[in-house]
Design brief:
about 140 residues, alpha+beta, Alpha-D-Glucose-1,6-Bisphosphate, Chain A, domain 4, seven-stranded antiparallel sheet, 3 helices, globular
């Protein structure tokens, strides 16, 4: 398998970044405007990208203020079984985010598209945590 990996820093406390990753209301500001479900181990979360796609993920690992890992369990796209990981730690008074997306067997157009999309939403996460304004899909700040 070939993972997508991103490493970056957010000038916000790790607690705030973790909350932005695990609170449906906050996620709707920086990721996609419709998020349903509770971020608890074993629970299903639904991310809806209106008129585009819906993804259902299961929380497979959750350590408060340290990490959240989710597995795609349902989608119209060939991502079922893929794993998305956010691992956090403190570094130089910032939150270091290690993002990993696992499940690709080759570096093809699907991989390239997900790599770009991941980076775009990770930057939206950073902006949301630092300024309170993200660029979630379907929000007024979204850049298409």
């Amino acid at each position: 398998m070939i993972p997508i990996k991103h490493l970056f820093h957010i000038n916000s406390p790790v607690e705030k970044v973790f909350e932005a990753l695990t609170n449906s209301d906050m996620l709707s500001n920086w990721y996609t405007s419709i998020v349903n479900g509770e971020f608890k181990l074993g629970e299903t979360i639904i991310f809806e990208f209106v008129n585009f796609a819906t993804f259902k993920v299961k929380v497979i690992s959750l350590v408060e203020n340290e990490s959240i890992h989710m597995e795609f369990i349902e989608s119209d796209y060939p991502v079922v079984g893929h794993i998305m990981k956010y691992d956090l730690d403190k570094n130089d008074n910032k939150t270091r985010v290690r993002y990993t997306y696992e499940g690709f067997s080759e570096i093809d157009d699907s991989y390239a598209n997900m790599n770009y999309s991941s980076a775009k939403y990770l930057e939206s996460l950073r902006q949301f945590c630092q300024t309170g304004i993200g660029e979630g899909f379907g929000t007024k700040n979204y850049r298409s």
